[in-house]
Write a structure and sequence with these properties.
This protein is an all-alpha fold. The protein has ten helices and no strands. The chain has a single domain, classed as ATP12-like fold (Orthogonal Bundle), CATH 1.10.3580.10. Helix 2 runs antiparallel to helix 5 and helix 2 runs parallel beside helix 6. The longest helix is centred in the last third of the chain and has 22 residues.
């Protein structure tokens, strides 16, 4: 169980540091790095592309993606994103940070904070590649246990701040 009251207090007292941490992690967001594997890329196209399109349409955030390990150049969109983070309420920023830490995805955290997707959806999207790999290599029981713990924490975060989502 995470102590959400302490998290809220910490993020409230360290707002600018929290925003900077999110911006520092943004270039490494899992949703920006697509696979060269045709089958996995198709799944990413089905699940990630609609989210990126929604960000573009609803928030004018046009993130560039890559199929390599080179970090895509998203300087312009990062500046716009920084302004959006600064404009977030305490609740939204807290949700964004707590989700981003667990999902390895600032983008997914932002979308949960803005109620664009549920914590459950964000978990599925952020773990797409891991679940794809389990189809080939089998389930690592310890890793799956950790994923389920993260999922429970995400649902706890969402319920604490927004109530039960449908």
């Amino acid at each position: 169980m995470i102590n959400l009251n302490k998290s809220v207090q910490y993020i409230s007292e360290n707002r600018q540091e929290t925003i900077q941490a999110l911006l520092n992690f943004l270039p490494c967001d899992v949703l920006l790095f697509w696979s060269e594997n045709e089958e996995l890329c198709k799944l990413q196209q089905e699940q990630w592309f609609p989210l990126l399109q929604k960000l573009k349409q609803d928030f004018s955030l046009n993130f560039k993606t890559t199929c390599s390990l080179d970090i895509p150049d998203n300087v312009e969109v990062t500046n716009l994103f920084a302004n959006m983070l600064n404009d977030m309420s305490e609740t939204e920023l807290t949700v964004c940070m707590l989700c981003a830490e667990r999902l390895k995805s600032v983008i997914s955290g932002f979308m949960v904070a803005k109620k664009q997707i549920s914590a459950e959806q964000a978990f599925q999207v952020a773990n797409l590649e891991e679940y794809y790999q389990t189809n080939y290599w089998g389930i690592d029981v310890t890793a799956e246990k950790m994923r389920q713990q993260i999922k429970e924490e995400l649902l706890q975060i969402e319920e604490y701040f927004y109530g039960k989502m449908s």
